[in-house]
Amino acid sequence: MSVMSDDQNTADSIVKSRKKFKRNKILSIIKNNENLSRFDLKKITNYSMTTILGLIDELIEEKFLCEKESDDTRVGRKPLWLKINPDAGYFIGIEFNSFKLDCVLMNFDEQIVFSDKVEFPKNICAEQVLESIFTVLNKIKTRFEHNKIFAIGIGVPGYYNSQTGEVVEYAYIQDWKHIPLKNLIEERYNIKCYIKSNVSVMAVGYKRKYSMAYPDLQDFLFVSIRNGIRVIPVINNEIFLSNEGYAGQLGHLKIPNSNRLCSCGKHGCLNSEISDVGIKVKLIEAVSLGKMRGLFDRVENDYNRLTVENLVLTIQEGDGESIEFMKSLAECLGSALGVVVDILAPAYIVLYGTLAQAGDVFIETVYKALCENSIAENSKQLKILAPRLDENMGAYGAAWLAFEKEFPYIKEQI
Question: Is pLDDT of 214 > 80?
Answer without folding.
Answer: no
